[in-house]
Write a structure and sequence with these properties.
Bound molecules: pyridoxal-5'-phosphate
Strand content: 5-15%
Radius of gyration: 21 Å
CATH class of the largest domain: Alpha Beta
Number of domains: 2
Mean pLDDT: 95
Number of strands: 12
Distance between the termini: 40 Å
Number of helices: 13
Helix content: 40-55%
Strand order of the largest sheet: 2-8-7-6-5-3-4
CATH superfamily of the largest domain: Type I PLP-dependent aspartate aminotransferase-like (Major domain)
């Protein structure tokens, strides 16, 4: 049987190794504490659940939704966005419903790249950003994110021979996995750079709400490009409203880019169930108690986890945003993130994500997802401590 060559590019995924190591640990009788996936363990927004439940009784919600979604959803999104960021968006032409934001960011390269064209991606970055570029036959220029630059890319370091064939740049702040945040001034610099080089600017913004006490609200890319000259931003209800399993997100931005993405999606899907859009409308409207509770819960977990790590001598900076901790591996595990993670889960049942899975610059790090309460997180740290002390060094 012949399979397309592009499948080869999708195979380079170290998370598959982790999955195997996790399954092996389970068959060896280990109890798993899984901190490897950014899938919230908290309950979905009750307002959303009620709206979805009442939709089920309404047969008019049961058919195909087609690719425009509902106007009510797009209007709700436009209002939410305007209240939040003060930028007007046209619900008809500048908002697009998505089956989760990953679906949108992964499909977008099909609308923007010809085979061989470059996408400028963050390294480390969210793996699906690279996957979408590979599916479109594109090439990746990884923009290295270094701690000394606040995990922000340095645009002037992008080689000039790449730029004529580059079509898009993808940013994402607050950032998974490094947890870094970006300022409006940085986004303005990104917009100017993309304008100069004719690039589409994509901003993946799933952690818009997951920002801790004392931190400024993270900016939207459209505040830096209010005329929407070249930008598109992706939102999701997976994180703020704990609705990852419901698959609901949206894109807001330049009408031509929205239209191009809609054309790709029209070939692929008919949108999700209308009741889920009704749930999302309910979540985005009125009180935002679920968001507030979720942020508090992650902040408490962050504090407990960072204190526990620091107490065993693993010094890690406390993140200001997201549901993750990005930790530089202690010696002698530096540069061995996959080995560290596979051996840790085999020995202790604690599963974490190897930084290498997010790109070359992640090799010296691991990512912890704070998807358990403090007691379990503290137990995980005790097990990690034991592993670091007892395991023969690589
Ligand atoms: C940067 C980033 N983009 C997208 C997603 C997925 O979002 P969705 O559930 O809306 O597809 C995640 C989930 O962890 C993420 O971290």
């Amino acid at each position: 049987m012949h399979f397309a060559n592009r499948l080869q590019t999708l195979k380079k995924n170290v998370f598959a190794d982790m999955d195997r190591a996790k399954s092996q640990a389970i068959s060896n009788g280990k109890t798993i504490i899984d901190l490897s996936l950014g899938s919230s363990d908290l309950p979905a927004d009750p307002k959303a659940l009620n709206a979805i439940a009442s939709s089920l009784d309404d047969p008019t919600t049961h058919g195909y939704l087609l690719h425009y979604g509902t106007l009510k959803f797009r209007e709700t999104v436009a209002q939410w966005y305007h209240q939040r960021f003060g930028v007007e968006v046209d619900p008809d032409t500048e908002v697009l419903t998505l089956i989760g934001s990953q679906e949108g960011t992964a499909h977008l390269p099909l609308a923007l790249l010809d085979p061989g064209d470059f996408a400028l991606l963050l390294d480390p970055g969210y793996p699906s950003h690279a996957g979408g570029v590979y599916l479109a036959g594109g090439q990746i220029y990884p923009m290295p994110l270094l701690a000394e630059n606040g995990f922000l890319p340095v645009f002037k370091d992008i080689p000039s021979h790449i730029l004529p064939q580059a079509r898009l740049m993808v940013l994402s702040y607050p950032h998974n996995p490094t947890t870094a945040t970006a300022s409006l001034a940085f986004f303005k610099e990104a917009v100017a750079f993309c304008q100069e080089h004719g690039l589409v600017l994509v901003h993946d913004f799933p952690y818009v709400d997951i920002v801790f006490e004392g931190m400024a609200q993270p900016p939207s890319i459209l505040q830096a490009d209010p005329r929407k000259s070249l930008s598109i931003e992706f939102f999701t209800l997976s994180k703020s409203y704990n609705m990852g399993g419901f698959r609901i997100g949206y894109a807001i931005g330049n009408a031509d880019i929205i239209q191009a993405l809609r054309r790709v999606k029209a070939v692929v899907d008919f949108n999700q169930y209308r009741g889920i859009l009704n749930g999302a409308i309910a979540a985005l409207t009125g009180d935002q108690k679920t968001v507030e509770k979720t942020v508090k819960r992650f902040q408490t977990r962050r504090d407990a986890f960072i204190n526990a790590l620091n107490a065993i001598g693993w010094q890690v900076t406390s993140p200001q945003a997201t549901m993750y901790v990005w930790a530089k591996l202690p010696q002698p595990w530096e540069n061995k993130s996959v080995e560290f993670c596979t051996e840790l889960v085999a020995a202790t049942g604690v599963a974490v994500s190897p930084g290498a899975g997010f790109g070359k610059q992640g090799e010296r790090y691991v990512r912890f997802a704070l998807v358990h309460d403090p007691d379990i997180l503290e137990l995980a740290v005790q097990k990690i401590n034991h592993f670091l002390e007892e395991t023969p060094k690589p």
